[in-house]
Amino acid sequence: MARDFKNPQMKTVWEYGLITVSMMIMTIGVYFFKFPNHFAFGGVTGFSTVVSELTRWSASQFTFIANMVLLVLGFLFLGRDFGIKTVYASLVMSAMLPVLERFFPMAQPLTDEPLLELVFAIFLPAVGSAVLFNIGASSGGTDIIAMILKKHTSFNIGTVLLLVDLLSVVMAFFIFDPTTGLFSSLGLMAKSLMIDGVIESINQCKCFSIVCDDPDPICDYIINTLNRSATIYKAQGAFTHHPKTVVMTTMKRGQAVKLRNYIRQTEPTAFIQISNSSEIVGKGFLTN
What we know:
Elements: H1 8-34, H2 43-54, H3 59-78, H4 84-103, H5 114-134, H6 142-152, H7 157-175, H8 178-203, E1 205-212, H9 216-225, E2 231-236, E3 243-252, H10 253-266, E4 271-277
Antiparallel strand pairs: 1-3, 1-4, 2-3
Helix pairs in contact: 1-4, 1-5, 2-3, 2-7, 3-4, 3-6, 5-8, 6-7, 7-8, 9-10
């Protein structure tokens, strides 16, 4: 997901484009699948489903109001430390929800399969959140509360946010019915696991350790064709005691397939060890 940009402006355009798309995905999941089914898990939108049942506000309206209030609190308590990416993401969701509510009013769920809709209510926001976390942004909402607590208190932020989410789920049992409460509980348990899984999938890279006799063609292919780099060092076979060269490199999955096929064709006797990694920090990978 990370990109190397020589032009800082292009990097900014890329990141804000990702934020916009991720917030659109998240908002679609919340509006079309979470709100109509009253799934009360996950921060501000979770509370919105409960509040909409107790007041004349719709879930979209309360989400908009709550996000605006939290943005103001963020500016008051965080000042310059308040991330502009988080502000932008929160504004995108706050703007999209009223638009969807006006042009696509939802009087009832899309289908009569609540479990199917729960999957989409979890998966779509999880994808959006994972993309945001991957570029150092967040969707605002209760994340702003976490930022304030981190700066001004010694509270365990993870525990506080979990208690906030649990409160909305418990309220769902009483405001709606046990079925909705149980679905919300399931959604809360699955949400964080889904986000972690999507982040790992987005960042997954292939790490190569190539033991060969002639590293020059392999390194040339890595550098000039795949636009990656590599590290080489000398080794010795334990059985034959013949000198060997080990080439170490890391790349995305699509490039890894090309490299593996190239090595099989040019040096079929090479020993290739390929492992997965979901977190590579350095030029060409994660830089945040």
